[in-house]
Amino acid sequence: MTERIDWRDLRERRMAEPGADEAYEAARIAFELGQTVRELRERNGWSQSQLARAAGMTQPAVARFEAGGTVPTLVVLERLARALHMRLDVRFSPAADAA
């Protein structure tokens, strides 16, 4: 018989693999950026298509971005910021666990 693995065990195994922490962090950042863009778009009362036109993108690209499905380049972030009448601010901050 095959051994059954529950979700916690599977996650623990996957997170122990080389590079898993970095991939997880990249996914978190992509998701948070997507949520922020969606909130700004909705605050402007725009559809994804309207934002896409303003940013020189396609609607599916905006949808993927908002869903956290892509790790954006600085060029894409700058396009979105400009379209949303925002300034892109990229900076380094101390890590929460830094002593």
Provide a descriptive summary of the structure in words.
The chain has a domain at 18-83: 434 Repressor (Amino-terminal Domain). With 99 residues, it is mainly alpha-helical. Helix content is 60%, strand content 0%. The mean pLDDT is 90. The chain starts with 6 loop residues before the first helix and ends in a 16-residue tail after the last helix. Helix 3 packs across helix 4 and helix 3 (48-55) crosses helix 5 (74-83). The protein contains 5 helices and no strands.
CATH homologous superfamily designation of the domain at 18-83 = lambda repressor-like DNA-binding domains
CATH level 1 name of the domain at 18-83 = Mainly Alpha
Q: Element order, helices and strands?
A: HHHHH
Percentage of β-strand residues: under 5%
Sheet having the most strands: none
Q: What is the fold named in CATH at topology level of the domain at 18-83?
A: 434 Repressor (Amino-terminal Domain)
Tell me the distance between the termini: 49 Å
Gyration radius from CA atoms, angstroms: 18 Å
Helix content: 55-70%
Second CATH tier, the architecture of the domain at 18-83? Orthogonal Bundle
What's the mean pLDDT score?
90
Poorly predicted tracts of residues: none
- Number of helical elements: 5
Total strands: the figure is 0
- Structural class of the secondary structure composition? mainly alpha
- The coarse silhouette is elongated
